[in-house]
């Protein structure tokens, strides 16, 4: 049987998102940002974050990517859905649900850098640094978590549980 143990409450998430949004707003003072959420997991975090930013949000766009399954170690990233925004000369804020190995964001950042933005920053709701196989470090992170599989606040297990307002660790009986 699977258990879902609450790890982070809705209130804790709300508070932390406010705090991170305030930090971003102060770092970007006098500038505007293009916010790009990574589908599907980041849809809730993106919605919360943009409403808490106090700097002008030029636009909100979404990208969806997948890596070729053939060779996991080199897994080349491809767009399932590209953004429709021209980011040349813009301050880009990529919003992700969780960074695990870091492969996804490492490649995505590189792909966006080729479009000559003014700057690119990465903001993630959750970070699992112990799982990293790349040198990717997020510029903004709400919660550093241990090597556990979590769901809720946009994150899924087999497409499910994205709607949970809190974050829960998925655990099987023998764990
Ligand atoms: P990576 O950083 O390229 O390894 O991939 C990160 C992606 O893996 C995230 O965007 C999620 O889709 C997925 N992922 C990693 N850890 C979890 C988890 O604990 N729960 C749900 N999805 C996860
Ligand atoms: Mg994802």
What this model shows, in words?
- By secondary structure, the protein is an alpha/beta fold.
- The chain has a single domain, classed as Rossmann fold (3-Layer(aba) Sandwich), CATH 3.40.50.
- It is 22% helix and 34% strand.
- The chain contains 3 helices and 9 strands; from the N terminus they run βαβαβββαββββ.
- The protein has a 6-stranded mixed beta sheet. The protein has a 3-stranded antiparallel beta sheet with strand order 1-9-8.
- Strand 5, helix 3 and strand 6 form a beta-alpha-beta unit.
- Helix 1 crosses helix 2.
- The longest helix is centred in the N-terminal third of the chain and has 18 residues.
- The protein starts with a strand and ends with a strand.
- Bound molecules: inosinic acid and magnesium ion (MG).
- Magnesium ion (MG) binds next to loops.
Strand and helix layout:
Elements lengths: L1 E7 L1 H18 L5 E6 L4 H10 L4 E11 L9 E5 L9 E9 L3 H11 L5 E9 L12 E5 L5 E2 L15 E6 L3
Parallel strand pairs: 2-3, 2-5, 5-6, 6-7
Antiparallel strand pairs: 1-9, 3-4, 8-9
Bound molecules: inosinic acid (IMP) and magnesium ion.
């Amino acid at each position: 049987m699977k258990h879902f143990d609450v790890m982070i409450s809705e209130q804790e998430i709300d508070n932390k998102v406010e705090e991170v949004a305030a930090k971003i707003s102060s770092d970007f003072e006098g500038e505007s940002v293009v916010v790009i959420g990574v589908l599907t997991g980041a849809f809730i975090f993106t919605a919360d974050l943009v409403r808490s930013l106090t700097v002008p949000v030029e636009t909100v766009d979404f990208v969806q990517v997948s890596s070729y399954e053939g060779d996991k170690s080199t897994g080349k990233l491809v767009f399932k859905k590209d953004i429709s925004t021209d980011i040349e000369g813009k301050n880009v804020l990529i919003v992700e649900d969780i960074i695990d190995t870091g492969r996804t964001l490492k490649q995505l950042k590189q792909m966006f850098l080729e479009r000559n933005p003014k700057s690119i920053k990465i903001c993630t709701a959750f970070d699992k640094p112990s799982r990293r196989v790349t040198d990717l470090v997020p510029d903004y992170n709400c919660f550093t978590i241990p090597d556990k599989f979590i769901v809720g606040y946009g994150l899924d297990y087999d497409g499910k549980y994205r709607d949970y307002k809190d974050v829960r660790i998925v655990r099987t009986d023998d764990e």
